Amino acid sequence: MKLLIIGSSVKDHIHIGNDEKVSPGGIYYSVLGASGFANENDEIFLLTAIDKENESLFASAFEMVNTSLKTYTDKIPVVHLNISESAERCEYYENITQNLSLKNIPNLNSFDGILINMITGFDINVEDALSLRKNYDGLIYLDVHTLSRGLTEKNERVFRPIPDAEKWIASANFIQVNENEIFTITDKKDEFEAAKSILQFGAEYLILTKGELGARIFWLKQDELNSAFVSALKLEATNRVGLGDIFGAVFFSAYIKHQNLNYALRLGNTAAGTASEFTNIDEFKRLKDDTYARFN
Fold first, then answer.
1. Mean pLDDT estimate for the chain
2. Which of 37, 116, 195, 217 is 20 to 30 A removed from 256 (C-alpha atoms)?
3. What is the CATH number of domain 2-295?
């Protein structure tokens, strides 16, 4: 497998009650997920921007992949995440950066898949997404993520209808959303009606991550909506950051290799659940082994 991952590197300040933890974030977790399940013959390339000050913070993941496409910026975004057990997290941003450049990707069609994670919502623009789709023949996976959130004058990220949503959806084979993000793409109020509406824009599959409930994948067959569901692991979650990123990277890698939706859905779901028990970055070294121990 030869995989290209595109997305922003951000520095997370995670606030839970009165506690604050600083850690690498953003595309870091996508890289952890994909590289953690890679075989010796797999090649993973990362297109991101990083600054000199924080480069060492990301080294544990980035050293596992080919970073020849990375660029340097003066300051990477800083994200303040206020985590609640009962509600969607609140986000506040510093240092919003410019779009990543996709101009110098060599041998684009040599990749088996391209994973785009809209970490900041500004990682690439819709013209870049459509151009990538036009010039690339393989599978594209788009995690909507913060594309679903606008930016207030106070740099708060709030949910709002995604501009050019139809074009974004048409640019990818797989679309990943959570239970809030799905309703920023369509005005439908039911998740099944929303899924059908979104898939009619041109994507082949829509993946809805449902937190402690699990995940569901939707697709259309002769204009009839089909879906498959997998329940979340029953465990005591201690981490709520990066789980969707882990899910997407593991799912997409598994699908590229095995072309089996149910297998990829189960593996991605199990990996995300396993990661929810990790309390520090070092524990992610066990992600593959711990996931397969539960998966099998």
1. 95
2. 195
3. 3.40.1190.20
